[in-house]
Amino acid sequence: MRITNKPILLVEDDQVDMMRVTRALKEIHVINQIVHRENGEDALNYLQDEKSEKPCLILLDLNMPIMNGIEFLQAVKKDGRLRAIPVVVLTTSDDQQDKLDSFNLGAAGYMAKPVDYRQFVEVMHSIDAYWTLSQMP
């Protein structure tokens, strides 16, 4: 994610998980600004605001109030201006239907949030490595 200075949008309602993601990204030297929104509705408003810089990546939790991750993913992938932004689901859900729904709606990846912090850092490192090496349009 170092190849661009665009922000990373983190859509996460749990404050502890938000801090874990931020800390893990800092630990692996990801320098992109983290824009945090606590639910899908707030995140969608951010993305649709013309003054907001579009992120290079969206990290999305599924289980959130107001608008959950699946509903958010549907809205983003329907919007021609937002559709190309890669979305990685980062969730505690191990539900097979959630995985199917996420990929069917165009998620670029689906990662389980490990409880162990070191493993969490490894998950963040994997996401960073993939998006750093991936050729974006």
Automatic annotation (TrEMBL):
<dbReference type="InterPro" id="IPR052893">
    <property type="entry name" value="TCS_response_regulator"/>
</dbReference>
<dbReference type="GO" id="GO:0000160">
    <property type="term" value="P:phosphorelay signal transduction system"/>
</dbReference>
<feature type="modified residue" description="4-aspartylphosphate">
    <location>
        <position position="61"/>
    </location>
</feature>
<protein>
    <submittedName>
        <fullName>Response regulator receiver domain-containing protein</fullName>
    </submittedName>
</protein>
<dbReference type="InterPro" id="IPR011006">
    <property type="entry name" value="CheY-like_superfamily"/>
</dbReference>
<dbReference type="InterPro" id="IPR001789">
    <property type="entry name" value="Sig_transdc_resp-reg_receiver"/>
</dbReference>
<feature type="domain" description="Response regulatory">
    <location>
        <begin position="7"/>
        <end position="128"/>
    </location>
</feature>
<dbReference type="Pfam" id="PF00072">
    <property type="entry name" value="Response_reg"/>
</dbReference>
<keyword id="KW-0597">Phosphoprotein</keyword>
